[in-house]
Amino acid sequence: MFTKEQVAKTIDHAVLKPDSTDADLVANAKMCIENGVFSMCVKPCDIKAAKELLKNSDVKVSCVLSFPHGADATPVKAFQAKQAIEDGADEIDMVMNIGKFLSGDFEYVVNDIKAVVEVAHSHGVLVKVIQESGYLTLDQVAKACELSDEAGADFVKTSTGFGPGKATPEIVEVMVKTVGDRMMVKPSGGIRDWETAVAFLEQGADRLGIGSTEAVLKGAKAEGNY
């Protein structure tokens, strides 16, 4: 059995919608502090503000990078990581280059992730790699996990919440089975109720990406898409 507090401590609360305003950031930071979530995951432009809003709390700041398509050039991704860390990010959720992965250019994918990992790890910042698993077969999910591991990343993550599909038990099972003994696993996208959140933790997930955090923690069904 998981308590509300235990589940909250696994949540990266997502504030990533394109139309999220500064006022939304303030309201979400307050909610994160009140509920004791692990981190608030924000857009790169919001890192500094989030850091300030959360400064007297235990809530960390995580951010997305090359979001949501993963298509930035590798040097740009490395620079984004540097900028995010300077602005105060504690963890980075980068999107894998999906097109290069589906092209079979695995060397590119590994080097792309590695460029971000090298910057982040030199500052003690963890890196999560978002596969956008809805584009992939389960075999490809396993392969993407192996590449993320080879590149030295800390987490594999399912989805941005803005692509096809969402986190599923089948995808999470593959992730846990493939790299769960040496990497952490973060289901994200479509987690809108308590039962779904807890089921992923029981499967072996280490962190959860959730936008509907209050509803999940209240054990209620959440409305909306993320």
Describe the protein's architecture and organization:
The protein has about 230 residues and is of the alpha/beta class. The chain contains ten helices and eight strands. It has helices spanning about 5-10, 20-35, 45-55, 75-85, 100, 105-120, 140-150, 170-180, 195-205, 215, and strands at about 10-15, 40, 60-65, 90-95, 125-130, 155, 185, 210. Strands 7-6-5-4-3-2-1-8 form an eight-stranded parallel beta sheet. Helix 4 packs parallel to helix 6 and helix 7 (about 140-150) packs parallel to helix 8. It is globular.
CATH architecture: Alpha-Beta Barrel
Q: Strand-and-helix sequence, N→C?
A: HEHEHEHEHHEHEHEHEH
Arithmetic mean pLDDT: 96
The span between the termini is: 25 Å
Tell me the strand percentage band.
15-25%
Fourth CATH level, the homologous superfamily = Aldolase class I
The CATH topology: TIM Barrel
Overall tally of domains: 1
Which structural category do the helix and sheet elements fall into? Answer: alpha/beta
Shape field? globular
* CATH class category label: Alpha Beta
User: Which sequence of strands runs across the widest sheet?
Assistant: 7-6-5-4-3-2-1-8
Name the poorly predicted regions. none
Reported for the largest beta sheet, the result is: 8 strands, parallel
Number of strands: 8
Radius of gyration from CA coordinates: 16 Å
So how many helices?
A: 10
